Amino acid sequence: MTVGLAVMVMLLIFPLVVTQIFPLQIMILVFMYAMLGVAWNIMGGYAGMFSFGQAAFFGIGAYTSSYLLMAFHVNPWFGLIAGGVVAALVAAAIGYPCSNLRGHYFAIASIAFAEIVRVYFNNWTLVNAAEGISLPMLDESFTNFMFHNSKVPYYYIMLAFLLLALVVCHFVATSKMGYYFRAIKESHDVAEVLGVNVVRYRLIAIMVSAFLSAMAGTFYAQYVLYIDPESVMLLAISIQIVLLSMLGGAGSVMGPVIGAAVLIPIAEVTRVWLGHQGTGVDMLIYGFLITIISVYQPQGVWGILSRIGNRIK
Amino acid sequence: MKVKSWITICLSMFLLLAFSGTVLAQEVIKIGAVYPLTGNIASTGLDCKRGVDLAVDIINGKYGKDLDLPMAKTGGLPNLGGAKLEVIYADTKGEPKNGMSETERLVTQEKVVAIIGAYQSSVTKTASQATERLKVPYVCSDSSSPTLTERGFKYFFRVSPHDAIFAKDWFQFLKDVENKTKMKLTTVAILYENTEFGSNVGKYARKYAQEFGYKVVADVSYAANATDVTSEVGTLIKSKPDVLMHASYITDAILFTKTFKEMGFAPKGILTMAGYIEPGYLPAVRVDGNNIIVRSTFALDLGKRKPLVAKVSQLFKKKYGIDMSENAARSFMAPFVLADAFNRAKSTNSEAVVKALLETNIPGNQVIYPWKGIQFDPQSHQNIYAQGGLVQVQNQQYVTVWPFASAAKDVVWPFPGWKGKK
Amino acid sequence: MLARIEIMPEQLLQQIVNGLLIGFMYSLIAIGLTLIWGVMNIVNFAHGDFLMVGMFTSFWLFSLYGLDPLFSIPICFLLLFVMGMLIYRFIVSKVMKGPMLAQLVVTFGVSIFLSNLAVYLWTPDFRLIPPTILQGTWEFGEIILSIPKTVASVGSIITSVCLFLFLKKTKTGKAILATEMDRESALLMGINTERINSLSFGIGAALVGVAGAFLSTYYYIYPQVGGLFGLIAFSIVALGGFGSIEGAFIAGILVGLVQTLGGFFFDPAYKYAIVFMIYLITIWIRPQGLLGW
User: Fold this and answer.
1) Which class for C273: exposed (0-12), middle (13-18), buried (19 or more C-beta within 10 A)?
2) H or E element that contains B45
3) Shortest CA distance to B60 belongs to which of B44, B48, B78, B47?
4) Exposure check for chain B: N or C terminus, fewer CB within 10 A?
5) Closest to C126 (Cβ–Cβ): which among B229, B250, B263?
6) What angle do CA A85, A137, B345 make, to 5 degrees?
7) A162 domain residue, yes or no
């Protein structure tokens, strides 16, 4: 608890102490991916639905708010909620027919779904298809959800979003719903026999996960000010989300946060140091790490930490 | 006392000399370059880097004083005390979000005073949004999306032609070839890969087809990394076009060339962009590339008419051991534009540089393309003299064939087909 | 989106032929994947990268020693077989008892590692093997058959039949089938399931290595080439039914046809979306796939 508070305080004062842009950028990305990981965790780590298609919801969120802004001048904060709702609805629509898919089948279905969405957006003229949407540059303000002179407001907003996601996840983990999720994860059939409405809870998990992922998408759009299907709906993003959640520890609230905190800085820093030679060494290290973690420490870093924690007790 | 004052005088003189030494010491002006140096498109990014590096060497006077390029004769920027240019590279990995973050890092941490790059239009978009926010000049000479100069940005300038110009060139060429050969052409098929680059070309091709009076009988978009394109080519064959217009990257250029040959698709002309002029294309397809026409800003045979091009190509070959490619040639120009602007502004202050850029007037004999020169439109900041040309693959070499006035050889028209080309 | 121009029967036939040709290649890629999946319930996300290794092997044997890709087939088979067995022995076997997520993710790690190792060793440039012994086309009236693709298709059929016979007629093959059907019983019957796993992973890799050799005769080679092929292979395996060799074979042909005809009659831009859509619909209606159990 005290560790948590200390970390929280450090995070809050970080941008006041460290003013260079690059570290701030890394932290913002860490928060964003952590949030995506937490969202994934709700349906994956807790409810056992391993989705490799989260980028679809991320992208739907980004596109919904950006399109509304571009075409109808809808304020991005409303766009944020709209994006979450649209993503949740799409999630329900796809989740329902997939509600009895397990394990590998579900994983592949999620990939298929995400790819269909990406191809569709790539050809949909309403949202400029492959050209993507360049967000109009509004005046800098909190209401406009756009800042030009400094990254600090983005930092705090993303941190706030992450905290929201963590609260939701914590609630899911410790509530009765959380127990149902875990029962479903262990065994569909047993859960059904015990009277758990499997379909209903699976849908809830997927919808919550989609909503949170979409929020991160809107943030990304407001941050980078340009989106296209290649940058927000790519399979590689979905895979990255699963990998960092697993690395940090799926099935634990803080797991994805730790995973993001480890993987994202590694990816960014190795790209800056080693990237300009064009040899892919950074990704080599990445792939190697993933393999090692899966084999020797599938509980992720969180697993290691809890073991150490137990031993201290 | 006398000794003391002598020591004081000597010390002061020494300090003065040392101080003036630093003042006279050459300054270095840092500019940032963002390119995809790793990832799928790394070979192109590294190609662009070669062009930039050679340009900077020339600006800094490494290659002697007889090149008629800005700053080459002086070696360094004369109005800024002979200051030299230094490029700091950043790898975007081909992703727009990295375009933004690397640009920010280069400006705020590495303190570069201007940015060049990024080849891919989607990355240039975010990178230039960053420079617009940070109020730093961005000179682009290798991204071709028309939308980049349609945003009303103050700090973004583009030297090279864009895809709308290239698309229009295609149709102008068709009109010219109709006049020359007295062969009537009525229908075109438009084929393009489905990211921003291809779709934009498709859009402008449709527009100009209408303007120039040609009928579009097929409009096919596809994924660049397709496993197989027989259905796309089947659709093209079905539509029986006089001419095919294809916007692609290198992988699809290779795949389509092979499939065209395999399925015997041979319209009267095959006009293409980008992928067909990448350095890896001809080595991959060899004779099958013959007689295909590609849009180009640069071709080695320009050297016959413009000695400057020959000299630069030689320098390039000497430094890198390979011929100068179109990508390298395009990226080559941006450092010169910046150096010229810094020099005239006598400063690296952003506002002064932007003002100087708006007043840029580099004459045609100081560029390595067949342009009238470099001058930016005050509204869009697009170089008004930027134009493309067309080259044709003849005997596995790229030969300038259009505009006819500056062609090195006659164009082979119509396309002679694939048979007997094994 | 729908083609409004009259379609001549030869064009339709040509597209069907092309669909079959790409379909047979897909089948060959998929049967290795389904074998691994069926025997040990592991989704090999690195399957596309095994394909890539096969393609590069064939390319380097050609570039350095002038060996025609057809003759590198046995070498690709052996090399990938050994590689597969080693990867199983030292990496995959260790997650077999672990959580499902670890099993899903470990092959991703291998995939990222392999494709970037290829970038590191061989650069991201595109390679193509120039025309060799079997190149060009055969013409039957209006229909054109690409020779390399036809040879690859024949190779695919032969390989599949060999695999089929191996599984049904040899002792080891039957042991593999038994393990696939019911692991516990197989154990009880004295079958060394660990050895079977290792063997199956090796064979699965070897098969896709052979596919790589064939594919290299007409497709370009580069480190990330495995991506789309791997993705399509998953759809095929699921469509045919996890673990069913015959299912994967037939599904591969079907997907080839759907992709080509779908691209021809509808918008080629959507052709892969159509393939994935077919997968989703099949999985909803009949979760065990066409021929799965």
Assistant:
1) buried
2) helix B42-59
3) B78
4) N
5) B250
6) 155
7) yes
What SS3 class is residue B339? helix
Q: How far apart are CA A260 and CA A247, in angstroms?
A: 9
Centroid of chain to Cα B54: 14
Contacts of A119 in chain B (CB under 8 A): 223
Specify if A41 maps to a domain. yes
DSSP chain A: -HHHHHHHHHHHHHHHH---HHHHHHHHHHHHHHHHHHHHHIIIIIT----S-HHHHHHHHHHHHHHHHHHH---HHHHHHHHHHHHHHHHHHHHTTTTT--HHHHHHHHHHHHHHHHHHHHH-GGGTGGG-EEPP-PPSBTTTTB-SS-SHHHHHHHHHHHHHHHHHHHHHHHSHHHHHHHHHHH-HHHHHHTT--HHHHHHHHHHHHHHHHHHHHHHHHHHHSEE-HHHHS-HHHHHHHHHHHHHH-TTSSSHHHHHHHHHHHHHHHHHHHHGGGT--HHHHHHHHHHHHHHHH-TTHHHHHHHHHHHHH-
Rounded to whole angstroms, how far apart are CA atoms B344 and B347? 8
> pLDDT tens track of chain B, all 422 residues?
466 555 555 555 555 544 444 444 458 999 999 999 877 677 788 889 999 999 999 998 888 667 888 888 787 888 888 889 999 999 888 888 889 989 998 998 889 999 998 998 889 999 998 999 889 999 999 898 898 998 889 999 999 999 999 999 999 999 999 999 999 999 999 999 887 788 889 999 999 999 999 999 999 988 877 888 888 998 899 899 999 999 998 888 999 998 998 888 999 999 999 889 888 888 888 888 999 999 988 888 888 888 899 999 999 999 999 889 889 999 999 999 999 999 999 989 999 999 999 999 999 889 998 888 999 999 999 999 998 899 999 998 899 999 888 888 899 999 998 865 43
B400 by DSSP, 3-state: which?
Answer: strand
Using CB atoms and an 8 Å cut-off, which of residues 143-162 of chain C contact chain A? none
Which of A60, A225, A214, A86 lies closest to A148 in space, CA to CA?
A: A225
Question: Do the interacting molecules here have an ipTM over 0.85?
Answer: no
Whether B397 and B292 have beta carbons less than 8 Å apart is answered as no
Residues 6+ apart with CB under 8 A from B93: A271, A275, B36, B37, B38, B39
Residues of C with CB under 8 A from a CB of B: 3, 5, 7, 11, 14-15, 18-19, 22, 119, 123-128, 130-131, 135-137, 144, 146, 218-220, 222, 224, 227-229, 232, 259-264, 267-269, 271-272
Q: Which residues contact A168 (CB under 8 A, 6 or more apart)?
A: A38, A42, A208, A212
Structural domain harbouring A212: 24-234
CA distance B89 to B16: 37
* Inter-chain residue contact C242 with A104, CB threshold 8 Å: yes
Distance CA C18, CA C146 (A): 9
Counting the structural domains of chain A, the total is 1
A152 Cβ contact partners less than 8 Å away, ≥ 6 residues apart? A15, A24
Q: Does B313 touch chain A (CB under 8 A)?
A: no
Euclidean distance between CA atoms C33 and A11, whole angstroms: 46
In a domain, A309, yes or no: no
DSSP C92: I
d(CA B297, CA B289): 19
Q: Does residue A185 fall inside a structural domain? A: yes
Q: Rounded to a whole number, what is the distance in Å from the CA of A16 to chain C's nearest CA?
A: 37
CA nearest to B40, candidates B195, B179, B185, B152:
B195
Q: Which residue of C has its CA nearest to A294?
A: C102
Residues in chain B: 422
d(CA B346, CA B352): 8
